[in-house]
Write a structure and sequence with these properties.
Blueprint: H1 5-19, H2 40-45, E1 50-53, H3 57-67, E2 77-80, H4 82-113, H5 117-125, H6 146-159, H7 165-177, H8 180-189, E3 197-201, H9 216-226, E4 230-234, H10 239-246, H11 249-255, E5 256-258
Parallel strand pairs: 1-2, 3-4, 4-5
Length: 259
């Protein structure tokens, strides 16, 4: 949620209590979640960190008691003010999205200069300051969190008259990356793909989910269709979501075969 949401919620509750001539003690706490799609339950039961944002000791104590069963062996709870907790959620996802876009940018350069990007990935990932997480080159990120939170953080910057070109670049690179695979296809087969059939393995933006929101497969399949190709696709989880997310049902039945 945007920075300042808890303040607005607190003001609304206080205003409503005043209208009713009531004095009821309350607190508003920010507790951002860091749950991965496809592994949400496990992430909740074994969190790597628990972020609590509260401006009162009471709010902190209540949240500590609530999370006590999940925080027994290691001190995973990070306590901070409300606005910082709200900002932490956006910052975490924007950082991961930045790593993805940066690695994809490196991969595109590597293709042009004859470099094995997998060797590069291993080389830079061995640096503990960088690590191996989120440095796999691919066709861009999707889903509900990374795109939304990068844009939200950029809008937050705009509200305080701060230009954030790096955040814009992260999204620009990601949007461009979704078309890289189709560009490679047309370099190999030409721009007219009529009579050709392409298999697409995977539809959702990540494995083990049916989430088609901003999935890179959507850009690829639409481009293949527009070039005249037939697409045969499969995803263990996202088969039912495939057609509705990609195009009209009539067009989907005509040129998109789910296998």
């Amino acid at each position: 949620m945007p920075v300042g949401t808890a303040d607005r919620v607190r003001a609304i509750i206080a205003e409503e209590l005043a209208l009713r001539n009531l004095e009821v003690p309350f607190d508003v706490v920010s507790n951002p979640e860091f749950l991965k799609e496809g592994a949400a339950v496990d992430d909740f039961m074994r969190p790597d960190r628990i972020v609590i944002g509260s401006d009162t000791n009471y709010g902190i104590e209540v949240m500590q008691e609530l999370y006590a069963p999940f925080n027994r062996n290691h001190g995973r709870m990070l306590v901070m003010d409300v606005r910082s907790a709200e900002f932490t959620k956006y910052a975490a996802n924007a950082m991961l999205a930045t790593k993805i876009s940066f690695m994809n940018e490196l991969a595109n350069i590597a293709d042009r200069v004859g470099v094995d990007i997998e060797s590069v990935r291993i080389g830079i990932g061995s640096d503990p300051r960088i690590g191996y997480s989120f440095i796999y080159p691919g066709i861009g990120y999707g889903g509900s969190c990374f795109p939304k939170d990068v844009r939200a953080l950029e809008r937050t910057a705009a509200t305080v008259d701060y230009d954030a070109p790096l955040l814009r670049a992260v999204e620009t690179v990601n949007n461009r990356q979704k078309h890289v695979l189709f560009e490679k296809i047309t370099r190999r087969f030409g721009t007219d793909l009529s009579g050709k059939t392409f298999a697409v393995w995977g539809l959702a933006f990540k494995p083990n989910t049916d989430d088609m929101r901003e999935a890179p497969s959507r850009a690829l399949i639409e481009a293949l269709w527009n070039a005249g190709a037939l697409v045969r696709a499969h995803d263990p989880e996202a088969m039912k979501e495939g057609c509705p997310a990609l195009s009209s049902r009539s067009r989907c039945r005509r040129v998109f075969t789910l296998r």
